[in-house]
Amino acid sequence: MVAIEVRPVTADQVEFLHELVEHGLLIESGVPGIYGHNEVFEDVRGRLDHRLTSEAAARGAVRLRFPPLLPRHQLELSGYLSSFPHLAGSVYAFEGSEAEAIAQADRASRHEDWSEFQRMTDLTLLPAACYPVYPAVAQRGRLEPGGLFVDAGASWVFRHEPSQDPARRQMFHQHELVRIGEPETVLEWRDEWAELGLALLRSLGLEAELDNANDPFFGRKGRMLAATQREQALKLELLVYIAGPEPTALASFNHHLEHFGSTFGISLADGGTAHTACLGFGHERIVLALLRTHGLDPRTWPEPVREELSLS
Ligand code: ZN
């Protein structure tokens, strides 16, 4: 068996994970970073989802929803495999004979490697909830003047980074809002939402800070990409302390410039290439930050926080 690489964690993170499991909020699966949620956890997450959806709708967002699988061709076009090959997951399936099916089942019954019987399909796991939006919008033809604001909802997304840190999941809900349009419109929207996001988290009693950030790009070339991203302030994050020495990003606001517009052929009303920006709120991380800050029983949370989430 190949040992699975698990990211290092602090005692504080492991202890918080145990507390969450003991209280039934998280349900362990035996694989780090894959958890079920109980009703209490899901109730808070559902209220948060509703809150974000309403804020976006009030500002003119159009709702689109996609499954948590992405056509392989779209992932290949996006550049994800050059930037984040270590985080991607793809779907394989059996396409063999009866004899191979028996051999596979036999191998699996001993929990041994049965990957030789599996073949790549046309699907990958969704790495970010905004990815299906760009080709979908490109298909509609030229944008109207002013572009488009899409609420892509809270999809399950996959990142291959097993960890004992309860805030670092392999699968979690990422609520993505996407703005597609003229360069200045998109940049203004990104900055406006960074402030709105900050105000939203603070209204939930979280000590959030907005900071410049970079993505965890792979390899040596990745370090250069990360430096450029910081220099140009293309990524902002809302940070809150959950567990461990570093604050955790609960939301990120990404400016892609022309990347997705030119990759998928999204045209502005005047025929130019559209700029795009997206923002992603990590539902589970926000719920964990609330549980850590206000206690593991939402019934005892401060009244203003309960009111913000319509818990009372
Ligand atoms: Zn995104």
Give a written overview of the molecule.
- The chain is of the alpha+beta class and 312 residues long.
- The protein folds into two domains: 11-89 and 127-308, BirA Bifunctional Protein, domain 2, CATH 3.30.930.10; 92-122, no CATH class.
- Helices cover 38% and strands 24% of the residues.
- The chain contains eleven helices and twelve strands.
- The strands form three sheets. It has a seven-stranded mixed β-sheet. A three-stranded antiparallel β-sheet has the order 4-6-5.
- Strand 1 and strand 2 (35-37) form a beta hairpin.
- 35% of the residues are buried.
- The structure holds zinc ion.
- Zinc ion binds next to strand 12.
Q: Helices, strands, pairings?
A:
Blueprint: H1 11-22, E1 26-28, E2 35-37, H2 39-58, E3 62-63, E4 69-71, H3 72-78, H4 80-83, E5 90-94, H5 98-109, E6 118-125, H6 133-139, E7 148-158, E8 171-181, H7 183-203, E9 209-212, H8 219-231, E10 235-240, E11 248-257, H9 259-264, E12 275-282, H10 283-294, H11 303-308
Parallel strand pairs: 3-7
Antiparallel strand pairs: 1-2, 4-6, 5-6, 7-8, 8-12, 9-10, 10-11, 11-12
Helix pairs in contact: 2-10
